[in-house]
Amino acid sequence: MYASTVPMDSSKLVLLLSFSYILLHQSSLTAAQPNFINYYCNNTGNYTTNSTYQRNLNSLLSSLASDTQIDYGFYNLSVGEFPDRVNAIALCRGDVAVDICRSCVNDSTHKILEVCPNKMGAFGVYALCMIRYSNRSIFGVVDEQPSFYRWNLQNVLDVTLFNQALQTLFARLRAKAASGNSLKKFATGNQSAGVETVYAIVQCTPDLSEGQCSSCLLDLFRMITNCCGGNVRGKIGAKLIRPSCNLRWETGPFFNGTLEILPSPPPPQISSPTSLPAPAQGRPWILINSLLHFDFDVLI
Ligand SMILES: *[C@@H]1O[C@H](CO)[C@@H](O)[C@H](O)[C@H]1NC(C)=O
Ligand SMILES: *[C@@H]1O[C@H](CO)[C@@H](O)[C@H](O)[C@H]1NC(C)=O
Ligand SMILES: *[C@@H]1O[C@H](CO)[C@@H](O)[C@H](O)[C@H]1NC(C)=O
Ligand SMILES: *[C@@H]1O[C@H](CO)[C@@H](O)[C@H](O)[C@H]1NC(C)=O
Ligand SMILES: *[C@@H]1O[C@H](CO)[C@@H](O)[C@H](O)[C@H]1NC(C)=O
Ligand SMILES: *[C@@H]1O[C@H](CO)[C@@H](O)[C@H](O)[C@H]1NC(C)=O
Ligand SMILES: *[C@@H]1O[C@H](CO)[C@@H](O)[C@H](O)[C@H]1NC(C)=O
Ligand SMILES: *[C@@H]1O[C@H](CO)[C@@H](O)[C@H](O)[C@H]1NC(C)=O
What's the pLDDT tens digit per position in 256-273? Predict the structure, then answer.
């Protein structure tokens, strides 16, 4: 995950290569799911193998994995009765096609058991979907922990201008996402910041009320300056992720299509005397790979 600049002697290299070969070879045999970008296992409670809780969890996860009815990217299920009741939410990024969403959710149901064996609660995050389950009720509840922060190391050209644009954009997207319905609370958009343009998405789990979504996103937005020693501020890309809401920005388009329906009249843009370069078009998903360059993860 982390780039290493430490020189390696050749025997170590051979070892590493054979190890990689074994890993690759094994994964082709076992159809392994991709790794989560981030995950959290709640160590407060452990269930025992063959317990009712485990049976409920397995049944719930396989319902999620095999569902073919839900086409809006939000899954909320409960199985069993107290004290063995399991509640789960899976959420796809709001711009993801239904087949990709289902396959992501399916992957997540397998991966979460693999990385958090015997845990009463867990939270796993992929680029395009996330999953969380718990023995406590999680529907309509704003969960602020755990928080994951990832950012690109590269700085924007003009921090002041960029942050003004971010602020304007997020105010708009937050209102738009929060006013979404009980199936989707998601918004995308862009805003010019001098010669750069910021593209962003925000999303809440749609079981939250408008007010809950709005305050979850506002809290998260404040973390841009409050978290991580200020290192997220002024970066060309970042992702802030909590179980109940998340946000991401980049200086190029990275989401699928233009789903943002602007309220009329459109809010005033930050004035920019220079003419803007046209945003990169046609291959928006290339930038997903930029996640690999996010070098710092902070779990708080
Ligand atoms: C969930 O499990 C934890 C750990 O076993 C326990 O302390 C807590 O009371 C449980 N909560 C509910 C709602 O069952
Ligand atoms: C649950 O298991 C983990 C190890 O997997 C352990 O560190 C933790 O203390 C256990 N929690 C409880 C409440 O027993
Ligand atoms: C769980 O159940 C399976 C099948 O009934 C059994 O083979 C296995 O030994 C059990 N494991 C534990 C830890 O009880
Ligand atoms: C879910 O993933 C598993 C393992 O990767 C795979 O065997 C299964 O066919 C998938 N199910 C669906 C409905 O895609
Ligand atoms: C983007 O949208 C198009 C059209 O709906 C769809 O075919 C494609 O699979 C989507 N890509 C992703 C990653 O969801
Ligand atoms: C871990 O589980 C306990 C018991 O259900 C719960 O009180 C706590 O909020 C959970 N922690 C997180 C970060 O979800
Ligand atoms: C799941 O979400 C839908 C839509 O928000 C809601 O109608 C339904 O009651 C929820 N189910 C549970 C078990 O909370
Ligand atoms: C950028 O925003 C403008 C208006 O706000 C919109 O027309 C355009 O489609 C957006 N571009 C992308 C890639 O979202």
Answer: 974 443 333 333 333 333
Residue 251 has a CB neighbour count (10 Å cut-off) of 23
Model confidence, pTM: 0.81
> Looking at domain 147-279+290-296, what is its CATH homologous superfamily?
Gnk2 domain, C-X8-C-X2-C motif (3.30.430.20)
**Which atom of ligand 1 approaches the CA of 45 most closely?**
4
List 40's β-bridge partners, or say none. 123
**Pocket of ligand 7 from Cβ distances under 6 Å:** 76, 78, 139, 182-183, 206-207
Q: Within a 10 A sphere around the Cβ of 164, how many other Cβ atoms?
A: 15
Kindly state the average pLDDT of the residues 10-25.
44
In angstroms, what CA-CA distances link 135 with 83, 84, 142, 247, 251? 8, 7, 16, 26, 40
Which atom of ligand 7 is least distant from the CA of 78?
13
- Nearest ligand to the C-alpha of residue 54? 3
Q: Which atom of ligand 5 is nearest to the CA of 285?
A: 13
Q: What is the pLDDT of residues 68-127, one digit of tens each?
A: 999 999 999 999 999 999 999 999 999 999 999 999 999 999 999 999 999 999 999 999
- Name the CATH superfamily housing domain 34-134: Gnk2 domain, C-X8-C-X2-C motif (3.30.430.20)
Question: How far, in Å, is the centroid of ligand 3 from the Cα of 62?
Answer: 19
